[in-house]
Design goal:
Oligomer: single chain
Mean pLDDT: 94
Structural class: alpha/beta
Number of strands: 21
Radius of gyration: 26 Å
Shape: elongated
Largest sheet: 7 strands, parallel
Length: about 500
């Protein structure tokens, strides 16, 4: 199966923060998971480099807009590597291939009579790059603001419009007949409610600034940032060449986005696509926002979380794990240092790390560093192996539905059951009373460690790979195809080193 997954492209008017890291890691987790299912995966991220905000920020810095975005875009590309994410393409909207793609999409919409020229006036937020109805705004001291606190100004200008109103009934019908296209379900309900409240034709060009992709055949206008930015998903797979192997292979995509940009992805984007005779996205998953120690993260409060600093303090896999174990994927979450230490100590140090450390060390010291296959299983052995297969099935179901936290929880529950099995079977006692039975118990535990590490690999790849290296197993030799089969060869165990040192609170 083909699996095309995307982050939203990140806006280059500032440096990366924890929100960018969260979305990119989410896509990396789902990308790695799908590779273990032996799916053909394509993972895209990049930067959104046009628009009034960028033009304004570059002017304030007294730098040419292109030089300005060149400096900032590289920060996002470096962050991808720092997060341990394996991408297939990094797109920039100032690239020639993207300009060609966006203008081709525009021309296709013109050809299909989906765009017309008129005049627009309304409340416009520079920060959101969007127009708002007055009933969507709140009034404070005589001025209007969006729900997220962005100021708006009354703007009147000539504009090209997309016939969004034509797609109201078609979008409602599409989502009501395909309820799995937006997740979580609460987001689907929000989108349907927004569409049913009435769609007006959408202003898709600007004349009040110049930093954007020129509208074909009318250089007075630049493309509205959302038609420009959304088109990046097509650019990466060779649009407008829809017969190219990469386009035919991967489209449509799964989009992982923050809830604040759900409307653009779940209303405007499918309408653009269908209007251009293209399939709408395969799925749109909208995740929540993070607060910092209970406070909304904002530049004015000075409480933005630097992903480099937090990873340097706690470790990459520890942060990857915390972000996706602590909060149901799709919900809002609170980022606190005490919560990181509690979660990492409980799940990774005391549970997973402790199991690996004590069993592998025992094998090295008492079994000449070797484990051999066995089939002399009693009821307790069969019970823990049944738990292994049950938890793996749960894990697959959860991960296939982007319920990453629940997928992780299934693995942690398996590891807790395995630690109890170790305590009950007590291989250190069996060493004195029944050597054959000791070897069987160790063989079962090693199998569970290997298979738990495989399930945790998408979330904490570096640590899972390290555990497997202690057992001399290459992650590239593993997938979920033969998960229920036990290892049928002798294994040589290397002395383990600590993987998850306890974090002092």
């Amino acid at each position: 199966m083909k699996f095309f997954i995307t982050t939203p492209i990140y806006y280059t008017n500032d440096i990366p923060h924890i929100g960018h890291a969260y979305t990119t890691i989410a896509c990396d987790i789902l990308s790695r998971f799908n590779k273990l299912l032996k799916n053909d995966v394509y993972f895209l991220t990049g930067t959104d480099e046009h628009g009034q905000k960028v033009e304004k920020a570059a002017k304030e810095a007294n730098i040419d807009p292109k030089k300005f975005v060149d400096m900032l875009s590289v920060n996002f590309e470096k962050l991808v590597n720092h997060l341990g994410c394996e991408i297939d393409d990094f797109i920039r909207t100032t690239e020639k291939r993207h300009i060609k793609s966006a203008q081709a999409l525009w021309n296709k919409l013109i050809e299909n009579n989906q765009i017309y020229l008129s005049n627009y006036e309304g409340w416009y937020s520079v920060r959101d790059e969007a127009f708002f109805q007055e009933n969507e705004l709140k009034k404070i001291n005589g001025s209007f603001f969006t729900e997220n606190g962005s100021p708006v100004e009354w703007v009147k200008e000539e504009s090209y419009f997309f016939r969004l109103s034509n797609w109201e009934k078609k979008l409602v019908s599409y989502y009501e007949n395909n309820t799995d296209k937006i997740a979580p379900k609460t987001r689907l309900n929000e989108v349907l409610s927004f569409i049913k409240s009435g769609l007006k034709d959408l202003s898709i060009s600007r004349t009040t600034f110049k930093w954007g992709i020129p509208v074909p055949n009318n250089n007075k206008h630049v493309m509205y940032v959302w038609i420009d930015a959304l088109c990046n998903y097509l650019t990466s797979i060779n649009y407008p060449d829809i017969k190219s192997p990469i386009f035919r292979k991967y489209w449509p995509a799964v989009h992982i986005v923050g809830k604040d940009i759900l409307r653009f992805h779940a209303v405007y984007w499918p309408a653009f696509l269908m209007a251009a005779d293209l399939e709408p996205p395969k799925k749109i998953f909208a995740h929540g926002w993070w607060t910092n120690e209970g406070q909304k993260i904002s530049k004015s409060l000075g409480n933005a979380i630097d992903p480099y600093e937090i990873i340097n303090e706690y470790g990459l896999d520890q942060i990857r794990y915390f972000l996706f174990r602590e909060v149901p994927f799709g919900n809002d979450g609170d980022f606190s240092k005490s919560a990181i230490s509690i979660r990492v100590n409980a799940d990774l140090s005391n549970n997973y790390g402790n199991l690996v450390q004590r069993i592998l060390t025992f094998i090295v010291k008492n079994c000449d560093s070797h484990v051999s296959p066995s089939n002399k299983f009693n009821n307790e052995d069969l019970k823990i192996l049944e738990h292994l297969n049950k938890k793996h099935k749960e894990y697959l179901d959860f991960m296939n539905n982007q319920q990453i936290d629940k997928g992780i929880k299934s693995v942690i529950e398996l590891l807790s059951l395995t630690n109890s099995y170790v305590d009950n079977q007590a291989p250190w006692t069996l060493k004195k009373t029944n050597i054959s039975r000791m070897h069987t118990v160790l063989y079962i535990i090693i199998n569970i460690i290997v298979k738990s590490s495989l399930m945790l690999f998408p979330i904490i790849p570096g640590s899972a790979e390290k555990v497997l290296s202690f057992i001399n197993i290459d992650i590239n030799e593993l997938d979920f195809d033969n998960f229920n089969e036990l290892i049928d060869k002798d294994l040589r165990i290397n002395p383990p080193s600590p993987i998850f040192p306890r974090i002092d609170q």
